[in-house]
Predict the structure.
Amino acid sequence: MNAVRKAADLRHMIGMARAPSSGFGTNLFLTDAATERLASTGSLFAREFEGAVIVLRREPCFDRLYYAAADLGRLESALAQLDLTAGGVLVSDLVGRKDEVAPWAAAFTNAGFSNSTTILRMQRAQAGQAPAADTDSGVEVARAGDAEQIHAALLANFDVYIDQLPPLEETREAAASGTILLLRDGSRMAALLYYDRAGLSTRFRYWLVLPEYRTKGYGDRLIRRYFHDCAECRRFLLWVHESNSRAIPIYRWYGYKADSIVDVVFIKRQ
């Protein structure tokens, strides 16, 4: 594996992988800005194969695997040649419609990966369905100084392999930009809603009420404020585990419904 130094280098490798055939597939959708940020921290690596490129993003306790391949056979060959260090863990997300993902998923299964979970994408059906925010709800916008506490709560309550937890610096940037909402009990954080926003689209990423506060309606206060703050948005997205039978009906109540896109998560441990 060689370190990726700049986004242009990665684009070139992907272009070379795309050239040989019309059966191209990829799960690599990093923007140039994200690629440059990761490259600057020395956490992005790539290896070229015949008709394919494998990219690894170093996370604190595992590597996230991306691929770009001319066709399914080239991906299978590349995965077969990929070395995994002793004790290493690889995680890869295959995103698309189930029928589109299925053949690529088979390649990962053949390479010794296990299907860990399937995550559904949901869209909010109508922007007017949710109740208005209560201006006296106590919800506040997080500050950059809250980032460490928020980051610790995410690590303690979400799956580090599956839920694509942001690094501390990204959490700090989100707090500074005003896209994390908090409820406090005195000086202690009791609940949070972490979202992102681009143009007229918004996606909430993490909605967490700490266990001792889950009968107080804190989650409802947060999501009402979120809808209020993003009232001009036209597209509301979220991702939820297919097996989360408790959360899915709640999201439906707030106007979300599943669309045809899934994220099938594969993990391989040495």
Q: What stands out?
A: The longest strand covers residues 256-269. The mean pLDDT is 89.
